Amino acid sequence: MRCTHCQFENPVGARFCEACGQRLAQLCPQCGHESSATARFCGACGAVLTDTVAAPRQIPPSAPPIPAPVLYTPPHLAERIRAERVAMEAKGADAAGERKTITALFADMAGSTALIQDLDPEEARSLIDPVVALMMEAVHHYEGYVAKSLGDGILALFGAPIAHEDHALRALFAALRMQQAMRRHSDRIRLEQGIPLQIRVGVHTGEVVVRSIRKDDLRTDYDPVGHTMHIAARMEGVGTPSSILVSESTHRLTEGYFAFQALGRTHIKGLREPLAVYEMLGLGALRTRLQVGAHRKLKSAQHRPSIIAACWVQATLW
């Protein structure tokens, strides 16, 4: 368990940092709720906290609290979020919540623990903060919502609380933008300080229930449906440095707009069946919805004769 106050790696199950004495806590990888260091399950959503695939992040209570979204959300997006709050209240959905399909994006620095283990906290923050800032800029550029700042990374949502039908496309455009910005930033840091910086991005499209939007700090309460956040975190966790990995649901919505490489299927803790994983390589050859629709119809037509032939062979065997 890593102490984010001094970055010391503590043994699993530790309640206090062995280097600085700060109390350790856990953040749920699904909903972000803070639990004690010894908790096995999240008190907010019931997710497993111990021995998870995507290790929870720890923060000591005495450290600066996780900043509220109002502190880093651009004013024009803040107004959009408050407008969504008014719309939810008008529909009476604030108490029961509103079920939405969204795209979740996790991004973090690859190997940050090893990079900053010999640095003092101020030097570490001077490396991490600009990276987190460029992640947020990419998300906000495509009108996404940075739900949480997670030390050396972020959790962002597209499609809620700001509604967009093309939320999956926006998430991948943001991922591509932050990787491009990161390469430029990393080249400069490598020349000046000799330190290599890289980030990983994971994206998954699934459902959440958005329950409330607080007007004062812009925090949004949402409950993942199924394993929405866990799968997104897993896509990021299994990625190599500088990669953008997406789930099958995101790939299905964005194929054609972007170029992908299939990486096979991977087992995810808590799921019975392994999930297909794709690496996003860059922009695809298609630009408009009409082009993508025609391309998918063509693929379907090309696939149909093989299905008919298979049915004919099956019939002859009978």
Structure description:
The protein is an alpha+beta fold and 318 residues long. The chain folds into two domains: 1-65, no CATH class; 68-285, Nucleotide cyclase, GGDEF domain (Alpha-Beta Plaits), CATH 3.30.70. The protein is built from seven helices and ten strands. The strands form two sheets. Strands 3, 4, 5, 6, 7, 8, 9 and 10 form an eight-stranded mixed β-sheet that branches. It has a two-stranded antiparallel sheet with strand order 1-2. Helix 3 runs antiparallel to helix 4. It is globular, with a radius of gyration of 21 Å. The model is unreliable at 51-64 and 307-318 (pLDDT under 50).
Secondary structure topology:
Blueprint: E1 25-27, E2 34-36, H1 75-91, E3 98-109, H2 112-116, H3 121-141, E4 145-149, E5 153-158, H4 167-193, E6 199-213, E7 220-224, H5 228-237, E8 244-247, H6 248-254, E9 258-266, E10 275-283, H7 289-317
Parallel strand pairs: 6-8
Antiparallel strand pairs: 1-2, 3-5, 3-6, 4-5, 6-7, 8-10, 9-10
Task: Give a quick summary of the entry.
The protein has 318 residues and is an alpha+beta fold.
* String of helices and strands: EEHEHHEEHEEHEHEEH
The tally of beta strands, per DSSP, is 10
- Helix count? 7
> Can you say what the CATH homologous superfamily of the largest domain is?
Nucleotide cyclase, GGDEF domain
Beta content: 15-25%
Alpha-beta classification: alpha+beta
CATH fold naming of the largest domain:
Alpha-Beta Plaits
The number of domains: 2
Percent helix among the residues?
Answer: 25-40%
CATH architecture of the largest domain: 2-Layer Sandwich
